[in-house]
Amino acid sequence: MWCIIAMLWCTTFIFRTAAWEGMRMPQLHIEGRYLVDDQGNKILLHGFGQTYSPWFNEQGNKWNNYDVEACLRYNKAKIDGLLSVGWKVNWIRLHMDPYWSNEPGRQTTGENDISAFSMTRFETYFKSVFMPMAEYAESKGLYVVMRPPGVCPERIAVGDAYQQYLIKVWTHVARQVVATGKTNIMFELANEPINVDGAGGITKFFQDVVDAIRAEGCPNILWVPGSGYQSDYRAYAANPIKGDNIGYAVHAYPGWYGSDAEVESAENTGDVAGGGYRGFLNGWCERVKPIADMAPVIVTEMDWAPKKYNASWGKSITGTRGGDGFGANFKFICDLTGNVSWMLFTGAEWLEQYRDGLADGGTFLTDPEACVRPIYRWFADYAKEWPHDQADDARRMVSLTADADRYELPIGGIAAVPVYATFADGHVECVTATAQYSFADESVAVFDKGLVRKVGDGETLLTISHTDAFGTTQSLDISIGESPLFPLTNEGFNPSIWEKGTFDETTGTLITGQWGFGGWQYPNGVDLSAYKYLVVRLKKQQNCGASFRLFDENNYWSSPAMVEFGSSTELVIDLHNLTKDGTTTKFNPEHVYIIGVWTYGGGDGVQFSEVFLSNDGKTPVPPTALPNITFPKRQSGIFNLRGQYMGTTDTLDRLPHGIYIVDGKKVVR
Fold first, then answer.
1. Are 495 and 503 in contact (CB under 8 A)?
2. Rounded distance, CA 337 to CA 505, Å?
3. DSSP alpha helices (H): ranges in 239-358?
4. Which residue from 303, 478, 527, 593 could staple onto 554, CB 3.0 to 4.6 Å apart?
5. Facing residues of 533 across strands?
6. For residues 526 and 215, what is the distance between their CA atoms, to the nearest angstrom?
């Protein structure tokens, strides 16, 4: 199958916070794509957030009137409360809310309006509110990430007033942390940039902020936001921020990156729709993974729950890993990436009320489909992987396992291969991010930062090994096989690239959601330029307005090349004479990312017979030449053109289209 297969619990080390109370917290810094401590341990942080304003502290029911002592008393109590009920957290996102720095009585248009900002007030309340809360959090073993007051305007630009505002704020903070030696306090440089204009774009905008901080002699870790409300980091991959201790701050909510979100219409209430696991993963690989391949990531806003609870920013369900829903797949993807710290954005007053001993139920705090219950338990499981005494023999690895012993991929396909180490004390860790991978034939497949990528024809053997702290090494072998470029299987076909659909591999039937799209995705692109045609055959006429669409950009909202089915049951698509919808731009078959069918939704759907590449518009393309192969002495059965045995003769119709040697004779399937 082309898509990324299941993955689970893939994490590095993390620390227990309570043990740090009253003692020095390890100094953190960034090495390559990892956050590490002063002992060289790779660190992942898991935490929560606080905003210091009356409205965000239970809608003004707890304190008001710039009452510093009441604010501190309330928010310190929330930290104490959630730790006392067992939350295994080790960082806090501290919002320096504009409630304190805006001049009282000055009207603004919202948090993105800095016209009422007073530097004098910011300096005053940084000293009396924000720094005391940071120090209190640290006393409880929590690292601190400070966020500046408010949110970004819709459009910001290099050299504009907002950039100067950020430089002014962070210059003051940098001076204070240097003066007080608070080098473990981290800075999230802005909240949710959307569009960034000006020469140099977003990199230049935040490089200037970084340079101003460093000019104050401040070495602290800086988390840089992306555009599109902190969802898009492709610009940084091409032009990263320069300097040491630079990571990137991401936001993730249901509906983002192609993930599932709750939708409502006249026909349904509370349904969850989106791209499912594969859509979410492809969106993440497109927008976040390019920078996560280079630097650590921290997710500074994320939550979910069914809308009926009115208790979360994101509306979705936990769902299942590799299937529907947002929460389980969010964790899945963070764990696979291997260097993603994250937090729960639900208010501390909710977290303090959580009781894990209560039975599952129909409330925000007891429903496993809302974020609080699963995250409480996930954080506890992460804590089992925190560093231990290296002399503790119970931490010796006793076995290494994987989810499957074979994965089938087309050229251009990718797969995650979750790998688990079991230790003498019985606990299990996913070690995908830290295992070693080698291939018998690297012309067939390669490993790239958490993903196996199919790069050539044929099959190969993947050997995975992992070494524990005692020097014990365990290994296992996994086969990487061949699959069609357009598999018509439940595993290989995604019916929910846009809107929730279904696919029945027995009948080949796709039924999309309303105005939905289903098909195949190639996150790294696939080159079809060597072929003349793409042939699509249906078993019967469709009646749902179907069109076949091909995208040469890794973005569903870009303009595709489109061919309408109408009453035809066969499309012979000339790959070299297509234009993108609504434009005169030629479609480029050298890099194709998304291929599939759009429909109005519902009805009888679209019933596929076969989809294949061709040079005559009629038959699948066989290889242009036979390589020199020495076939085994046994000639009965089916062999591929590499001389590999593929099965008995009665299994030919289940193999991908191509050329095979069947009982010693060449056969085109």
1. yes
2. 31
3. 276-287, 289-292, 327-337, 348-353
4. 593
5. 574, 614
6. 45
* Mean pLDDT to the nearest integer, 224-240: 95
| Residues 247 and 221: beta-carbon distance below 8 Å | yes
Tell me how far CA of residue 174 lies from CA of 295, 384, 453, 551, 637, in angstroms: 22, 35, 43, 46, 72
> Which of helix, strand or coil describes residue 326?
coil
CA-to-CA distance for 561 and 535, rounded, in angstroms?
15
Give the Cα separation of 553 and 151 in Å (integer): 30
pLDDT in tens, 280-333: 888 898 899 999 999 999 999 999 999 999 999 999 999 998 888 999 999 989
> By the 8 A CB rule, do 400 and 464 touch?
yes
Q: Which residues contact 177 (CB under 8 A, 6 or more apart)?
A: 183, 185, 218, 220
Task: Identify the three-state secondary structure at position 179.
Answer: helix
Which phi and psi angles does 391 have, rounded to 5°?
A: -85, -5
Q: How far apart are CA 305 and CA 75, in angstroms?
A: 24
Give the three-class secondary structure for 5: coil
Among 512-521, 539-548, 568-577, name the one with the lowest average pLDDT: 512-521
Question: For residues 492 and 503, what is the distance between their CA atoms, to the nearest angstrom?
Answer: 10
β-pair type (143-147, 186-188): parallel
Place of tokens 């005053």: 124
Side-chain-facing half-sphere of 345: CA atoms under 13 Å? 19
Tell me the pTM. Answer: 0.78
The per-residue pLDDT for 60 is 85
315 HSE (CA, 13 A, CB side): 12
Give yes or no for residue 612 having a pLDDT over 50.
Answer: yes
> How many Å is the maximal CA-CA distance in the chain?
91
Residue indicated by tokens 């305007």: 153
User: Which residues are within 8 A (CB) of 665 and not within 5 positions of it... i.e. 6 or more apart?
Assistant: none
Which residues, other chains included, contact 78 with Cβ-Cβ below 8 Å and sequence gap of 6+?
50, 348, 349, 351, 352
Return the amino acid letter for 435: A
CA separation for the pair 454, 411 (Å, rounded): 5
Tokens standing for residue 582: 């609504």
Residue 634 buriedness (CB in 10 A; 0-12 / 13-18 / 19+): exposed
Q: Are 255 and 306 in contact (CB under 8 A)?
A: no
| Order of strands across the sheet that contains 638-639 | 645-647, 638-639, 659-662, 665-668
Cα(222)–Cα(214) distance, integer angstroms: 10
* Count, residues in the chain: 669
Identity of the amino acid at 108: T
Q: In what order do the strands lie in the sheet with 451-454?
A: 414-415, 451-454, 445-448
CA distance 597 to 608: 10
